Amino acid sequence: MNEGKVYLIGAGPGDPKLITVKGLECIKEADCIVYDRLASPRLLSYARKDAELIFVGKSPERHVLKQEEINELLVKLSLDGKTVARLKGGDPFVFGRGGEEAEVLREHQIPFEVVPGITSAIAVPAYAGIPVTHRDYTSTFTIITGHEDPLKDDSRIEWPCLAGRSGTLVFLMGMENLPLIVGQLLKHGKDPGTPVGVIRWGTRPEQQTVTGTLADIEVKVQEVGLTSPAIIIVGEVVQLRGKLSWFEDKPLFGKRIVVTRSREQASQLSEEISRLGGEVLEFPTITIAEPDDYGPLDQAIQEISDYQWLIFTSVNGVQHFFKRFRDLGRDIRELYNLRLSAIGPATERALAEKGFLVDYVPQEFRAEAIVEGLKTRIKPGDRVLLPRADIARALLPQELRKLGAHVTEVDVYRTVKEKSSVRELLNYLKENKISVVTFTSSSTVVNFVEMLGKDNLSLLEGVVIACIGPITAQTAQEYGLKVEIQAEEYTIPGLVKAILAYYH
Fold it and tell me: Which UniProt keywords apply (predicted)?
């Protein structure tokens, strides 16, 4: 029997980028991921495709599994020889019951490792602009469970001691007990004017912060309808929020934005959105695959010296053409006599990275502009090689032939519909938690509609549709989608700029 192992991983407070490097490595390695409610769903996208995902989340309203059942599950999975990533919100040893799980694993002689996480006790106040310590205010802070009933006879919380301290008090999971917590602190002599902050869903787009004092915080929380999960921070440092707030000031804060590009291409758009404070939901609708038949491409490469022009209409076209060129053992010096054209700056950069200077890049990044610019450059009889996707528009080769060029179109890659799970996206749409859906090509639109299902398109009511350019926007409109954002520059930076302009 293979020996299993369990990693007790702290997933951090909610922002998926706050996972540790080691935690992410363990997620990627695991055969099975056992995760709870407070761990970011985006972390699951790093799991192996064959990994088993088991939700054991707990909330004040319901428990999917009791703690004893979770312990038994971890034991069973590891005894079956599986490497298990037990993904817990925050840090596993800060009110995460990780210690109990570790004890059970040790009793069964199951190997385990603890991977600490960034606790919400520190990270959530930081995202709200509240440092838990500050030399002008306090040098101590205390983390207290807010889940325990403050009025029970056998309480382990020393309320007189807490009320008498001048340091910062951080209560985790205390939203339901807020009136009792406030009552106990006041009862034992805490100044009613002591600043208090309550932060819900800290580090996430839904982050909501209410500040007040022990005297009025209950009323203020009720007025805005704040519910769990939230942390309560008590102390003079709360006053610094007005000066140090930063996360909620980001231009895309509070926006959850769907990225429909392929996994291979999503990173640039996702990173830009995250940098500006938005949360990305990656829902790849396409994947890039090899062509069904390499014959036409191989033949064109064999005759490469007979061509005068090589035109690329995407970064993917560049990458796949040169990969095949290399795989066939050809020498890049064979291309010395060719003139090059690229549809836009990203494609131009991809060629520059391979050591090529481009002869022509249109000001407007689409096929029509390429044709217009090449009218005075391509001569009748010139041979043009056009390596691109299998579903590319027919306009470019048609118009080049009208100029007298002999055009050879070859598929260097295929655009295939991705097999993404639609469940998470549907849940977010039903809860009105999606702000924007982005489309970067017509194929992303077509596949998105097919994957979502036409019966569910009504869920997009109130969701902003953002397209990278007019061709993509036209496709979206043909499917009945109302396009509210269209980039003026048909690039990823141009799309991000257009989203920013829409909201500001």
Answer: Methyltransferase, Porphyrin biosynthesis, S-adenosyl-L-methionine, Transferase
Q: Would you kindly state where each structural domain of the chain is located, as residue ranges?
A: 5-118, 122-245, 256-285+418-503, 294-417
Q: Nearest 5°: phi and psi at 459?
A: -70, -15
> Nearest to residue 408, comparing CAs of 416, 420, 400?
400
The answer to whether 402 touches 382, Cβ cutoff 8 Å, is no
Domain formed by 122-245, architecture: 2-Layer Sandwich (3.30)
CATH of range 256-285+418-503; options 1.10.10.10, 3.40.50.10090, 3.90.1150.10, 3.40.50.2300: 3.40.50.10090
Which residues carry out catalysis? 36, 58, 173
pTM for this entry = 0.78
- In angstroms, how far is CA 150 from the centroid of its own chain? 38
- CB neighbour burial string for 161-181, b if at least 16 within 10 angstroms, e if fewer: ebbebebbbbbbbbbebbeeb
Distance between CA atoms of 210 and 222, rounded to whole angstroms?
10
**DSSP state at residue 252:** T
Cβ–Cβ under 8 Å, residues 388 and 400 = no
Residue 474, token pair as written in the block? 């036209």
Domain boundaries 294-417, corresponding CATH code: 3.40.50.10090
Q: 294-417: same fold as 256-285+418-503?
A: yes
**Residue type, position 36, single letter:** D
User: Taking a C-beta distance cutoff of 8 angstroms, is the pair 392, 416 a contact?
Assistant: no
**Which of left, alpha, beta for 109 (phi over 0: left; psi -120 to 50: alpha)?**
left
What does the pLDDT profile of the chain (504 residues) look like in tens digits? 467 999 999 999 988 889 999 999 999 999 999 998 767 777 988 999 899 999 987 655 555 788 999 999 999 999 999 999 999 989 999 998 999 999 999 999 999 999 999 999 999 999 999 999 999 999 999 999 988 766 676 778 899 999 998 899 999 989 999 999 999 999 999 999 999 999 999 998 889 999 999 999 999 999 999 998 899 999 999 999 999 999 999 999 999 999 998 877 778 899 999 999 998 988 999 888 899 999 999 999 999 999 999 999 889 999 999 999 999 999 999 999 999 999 888 899 999 999 999 999 888 777 788 888 888 899 999 999 999 888 777 888 898 999 999 999 999 998 888 877 788 899 999 999 999 999 999 999 999 999 999 899 999 999 999 999 999 999 999 999 999 999 988 889 999 999 999 998
Place of tokens 């004893």: 68
CA distance 352 to 90: 44
138 DSSP assignment: B
